[in-house]
Automatic annotation (TrEMBL):
It comes from Anaerovorax odorimutans. Pfam families: DZR_2, Pribosyltran. Residues 143-234 form the Phosphoribosyltransferase domain. Belongs to the ComF/GntX family. This is ComF family protein. Residues 8-69 form the Double zinc ribbon domain.
């Protein structure tokens, strides 16, 4: 190998690691996933909730998932890429807690391909914000890295500082409708200097995981109050459509 090729090899390595199992793969593999891991992920099925985009079982008899039928949402339409399972969890844990921020760019590519299936265009992409302290500990906001990559590929501006998370919220699991609403009350705000950016605009909110949709609702509510015209939400992974035990 000549010195120039060696230099190029360093700049553009021909092999990279699979973001799920870590095995060495050819860099041309889509999303930096090996073939085995591509098969293991729970990609979007045929049937999804007509409102939030959550994956529904083929024999499920409603068009809307349990959450959408029970609570409704502060956003207009939702999309997701995979159902949250063991392998999806592994990728997200590596990404967030082992600080492998490059995984976020690969997830952004997955989000981009997902949106190619929809005939939608947006004025602005907005990542779900993290609380300042939490972000300082982690070093990055996982939703913002994914959103930035998606925005770059869609050619749409990304407004990372537009929404602010004013306080931490409790996990939504096990909370009733009223408690969920209370948990999000005042949790998000629009930075005053950014208000002019959203009036009359169609926004795409981005997060890594979608479970009940409450976080997206918290964001959607303040964005609509400040004049956003339409809000769609996009996540990498969504939880299963399960009615909680009463
Ligand atoms: Zn793999
Ligand atoms: Zn739904």
């Amino acid at each position: 190998m000549g010195i120039i090729e060696k230099g190029l090899e360093l700049l553009y390595p021909s092999n990279i690691y699979c973001i799920s199992c870590g095995s060495i793969i050819d860099k041309t593999r889509p999303y930096a996933l090996c073939d085995e891991c591509v098969d293991k992920l729970h990609w979007l099925g045929q049937k999804t909730c007509a409102k939030c985009g959550k994956i529904l079982q083929e024999d499920y008899r409603h068009d809307l998932c349990w959450d959408c039928r029970t609570y409704g949402h502060a956003f207009d339409r939702g999309y997701t890429c995979v159902q949250y399972g063991l392998y999806e969890r592994g990728i997200l844990l590596d990404y967030k807690y082992r600080k492998k921020s490059y995984i976020g760019r690969k997830l952004g590519d997955i989000l981009y391909d997902r949106m190619l299936l929809e005939e939608e265009s947006f004025d602005l992409i907005v990542p779900v914000p993290m609380h300042g302290k939490k972000q300082a500990r982690r070093g990055f906001n996982q939703a913002a890295v994914m959103a930035a990559r998606l925005a770059q590929r869609m050619g749409v501006p990304c407004a990372a500082g537009l929404l602010i998370r004013c306080r931490q919220t409790l996990p939504m699991k096990g909370l009733g409708a009223f408690e969920r609403q209370q948990n999000l009350e005042g949790a998000f705000a629009v930075a005053p200097e950014n208000r002019y950016k959203i009036a009359g605009r169609k926004l795409l909110l981005v997060d890594d995981i979608y479970t009940t949709g409450s976080t997206m609702d918290g964001c959607g509510k303040v964005l609509k109050e400040k004049g956003a015209k339409e809000i769609h939400v996009l996540s990498f992974a969504c939880g299963a459509n399960i009615a909680p035990k009463q």
